[in-house]
Amino acid sequence: MDRVVTPLREMGADAQWPPLIVGGRLPLHGIEHRPALPSAQVKSAVLLAGLFAEGTTAVVEPVATRNHTELMLTAMGADVSVEGLRVEIRPAARLAPLDMEIPGDLSAASFWLVASSLVNGSRLRIPNVSINPTRSALIDLLRVSGMTIDIDGARSVSGEPVGDLEVGTAAVLRPVSVNGTMAAEMIDELPVLAVAASQLAGTSHITGAAELRVKESDRIAAMADGLSAMGADITAVDDGWVVKGPRHLEGARVRSHRDHRIAMALAVAGLLADGTTEIEDAECVEISYPGFFDQLESLC
């Protein structure tokens, strides 16, 4: 939360942490914020505060992150400009209402992309998924690894690129390398990518993801612990993992650390493993994907 509270304080807000306490204080003043780590959530917080600030508020990212907030605010009439890694917003007296159809979340779909690609004999169609270029890096990377993922019916819905994903079982699988900009573009999908890497032939390097250390859990440590318990050859490094595959996975009792993405990633690993996998505190998936396990059961 320091990454959110600090720029808000710079803008004049009465913000404290921990625990998180934010008091109303106007007017705010615009700032230029240069986050050390890429984060679409931090960027969005600063831009939304900038709607109520005097002058221009700018966020200059180290690498580009997802742009859903900028697209939505622009559609509502906000004065937003983007030049390279710099996003600027100016105060708005009023935002216009709009009807918005929210497409399927690619982060949620990522679990099914990996599962369907790695479970023998699978074929899956996932309709109405966001294929925003700032979010689709995982699709590109999985294709590079040898997985078959097709996009059908690409279209624009409420300003967002949308398509239907067709996924088939992969044949020859190759290791992958992730760092820098690519890691930022798929930061939420990296836990399940680590699962996929355990089944790729060769050594995969997933780095540039130090932000995973400060998510709902230390996701780097959590995935290394969980997959190691199941027999994967995975080594945690400061900003990611080195994963050697393919490795035969065995069911085990693993910890979700009450982190929804860890729980869902380990559930996919459980599909690939022999025997029973028990995930502690698995109900945490309700945070982002209510009904995940019902959907999983319906597909098995």
Q: What percentage of the residues does DSSP assign to strands (E)?
A: 25-35%
Number of strands: 17
**Main beta sheet strand tally, sense and closure:** 4 strands, mixed
Quaternary organisation of the protein chains? single chain
Task: Specify the structural class.
Answer: alpha/beta
Report the total helices. Answer: 10
Spatial strand sequence of the major β-sheet: 4-6-8-7
CATH class of the largest domain: Alpha Beta
Q: In terms of per-residue confidence, which ranges show pLDDT below 50 for 5 or more consecutive residues?
A: none
Q: What is the helix/strand order?
A: HEEEEHEEHEEHEHEEEHHEHEEEHEH
Distance between the termini: 38 Å
Looking at CATH, the homologous superfamily of the largest domain is Enolpyruvate transferase domain
The CATH architecture of the largest domain would be Alpha-beta prism
